[in-house]
């Protein structure tokens, strides 16, 4: 199992943080363009799911899977959007994203007096703690191609 990359967006679609670990294929476009495409796709999928679901989608869209990767999604009550791309064998990713939000984002970003909501996170401490958190998770690993 492996983790490829992570996007963190605010409720307005601003990319607050991006990190990657085992990503082997680059998209060929800038990170900003890739983030805009990712956010737009999430917006569309959420809208689609809410309209066609036969049940009341309380949790809404959680993930989608292709034959090559899975995109996992967590939206917090404040509108933050965590998007984690993994291989298809990754399990319990929702719990991982919830812990990432509570143990890393809240501790090292929300409580940082130098961070202003809606701005890119530049804290090296946050980046280090996020990297440690992801690398110690059971789904982190080097992809065997």
From TrEMBL:
Its main location: endoplasmic reticulum. GO terms for cellular component: endoplasmic reticulum; TRAPPII protein complex; TRAPPIII protein complex. The keyword Transport applies. GO terms for biological process: endoplasmic reticulum to Golgi vesicle-mediated transport. InterPro entries: Longin-like_dom_sf (IPR011012), TRAPPC (IPR007233). Signal peptide: none annotated. It is found in: Endoplasmic reticulum; Golgi apparatus, cis-Golgi network. SMART domains: Sybindin. Keywords: Endoplasmic reticulum, ER-Golgi transport, Golgi apparatus, Transport. Part of the multisubunit transport protein particle (TRAPP) complex. The heterodimer TRAPPC6B-TRAPPC3 interacts with TRAPPC1 likely providing a core for TRAPP complex formation. Belongs to the TRAPP small subunits family. BET5 subfamily. This is Trafficking protein particle complex subunit. It comes from Drosophila ananassae. The gene is Dana\GF18826.
């Amino acid at each position: 199992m492996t983790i490829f990359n992570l996007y963190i967006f605010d409720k307005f679609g601003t990319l607050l943080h991006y990190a990657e670990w085992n990503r082997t294929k680059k998209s060929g476009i800038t990170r900003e363009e890739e983030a805009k495409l990712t956010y737009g796709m999430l917006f569309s999928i959420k809208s689609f799911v809410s309209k066609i679901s036969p049940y009341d989608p309380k949790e809404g869209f959680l993930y989608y899977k292709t034959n090559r990767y899975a995109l996992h999604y967590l939206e917090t009550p404040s509108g933050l959007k965590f998007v984690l791309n993994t291989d298809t064998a990754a399990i319990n990713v929702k719990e991982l994203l919830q812990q990432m939000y509570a143990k890393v984002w809240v501790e090292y970003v929300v409580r940082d007096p130098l961070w202003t909501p809606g701005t890119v996170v530049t804290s090296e401490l946050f980046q280090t703690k996020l990297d440690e958190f992801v690398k110690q998770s059971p789904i982190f690993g080097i992809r065997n191609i």
